[in-house]
Specification:
Layout (H helix, E strand, L loop, with lengths): L1 E7 L5 H11 L6 E7 L15 E7 L8 H10 L8 E8 L8 H12 L3 E2 L4 E4 L5 H26 L4
Parallel strand pairs: 1-2, 1-3, 3-4, 4-5, 4-6
Length: 161
Amino acid sequence: MIHVLILYASSTGNTEEIASLLEQHLDPKVYAVSLENIEMGDMDPQQLLQYDGILFGTYTYDDGDLPFETEVFCDTLRTVDLTGKVVGVFGSGDTAYDGFCSAVDLMKVEFKKHNAQVIPHSVKVDLSPDEEEDLQSIEKLAAEFRKTIINANATHEAGQF
């Protein structure tokens, strides 16, 4: 069984909806999925090491800022080496603001700093994921995540990690 954490910060429910859609693309016969909302400061960074992969979602606040709960998460992340962990990043924003979904890009950089294998494709949704292109982007991230994590697990099990 491949253990996956879908961890997200959601203010309006849009990022939470993306998280739920991603979960639907992970077969429960293959993936043991934990879906969790980031609560203020209660994330033990060592908990991340229990998972083979992480799908991380955040909304973008104001003109491209990380929301407070995501900043707190980044502070806890500093103590963890995510070598061998596969990470995909997704989020929501509002195209009315400069820096649309820039929190997604900031988090990709943050995870790379901690040696995670970050999926190149990320999901950036304008408000809620109700457009066909949003659903296709979510499916693409899920497919790339599944392929990458299966390959990483096969490499790990073969002792090549």
